[in-house]
């Protein structure tokens, strides 16, 4: 005589196989290809005027040092879209 436990486990296995064959199981996630890195653009900078102080360095913190005429002119770097000044204002001698 077949026991209830045996018949219930047989129905459970049969139900699981039927669900898997219908695609009702867990889906397998497949990642797409990695996108290429962005093309680096040249840092925004200007040609320094003749009265500009000497350039403090070629690179700082891995970024090229450039001249910008804003705020009276100064040397600095562009990092994440923000300008970080490395020298003071040569016109006023201050910030």
Number of helices: 1
Total beta strands: 5
Low-confidence stretches: none
Q: What is the rounded Rg? A: 33 Å
Main beta-sheet annotation: 3 strands, antiparallel
Gap from first CA to last CA: 95 Å
Please state the average pLDDT score.
Answer: 77
Instruction: Note the overall shape.
Output: rod-shaped
- The percent range for helix content is 10-25%
Structural class designation: alpha+beta
Classify the beta-strand content into a percent band.
15-25%
- Give the H and E element order: HEEEEE
Strand order of the largest sheet: 3-4-5
Set down the secondary structure blueprint.
Elements lengths: L3 H18 L37 E2 L2 E2 L1 E3 L5 E6 L2 E4 L10
Antiparallel strand pairs: 1-2, 3-4, 4-5
What does it look like?
It comes from Mycolicibacterium chitae. Keywords: Signal. This is Secreted protein. With 95 residues, this protein is an alpha+beta fold. The protein contains one helix and five strands. Strand 1 (59-60) and strand 2 (63-64) form a beta hairpin. The model has no long low-confidence stretch (mean pLDDT 77).
Features:
95 residues; alpha+beta; 3-stranded antiparallel sheet; two-stranded antiparallel sheet; 1 helix; 5 strands; signal
Short characterization:
By secondary structure, the chain is α+β, with helices and mostly antiparallel strands.
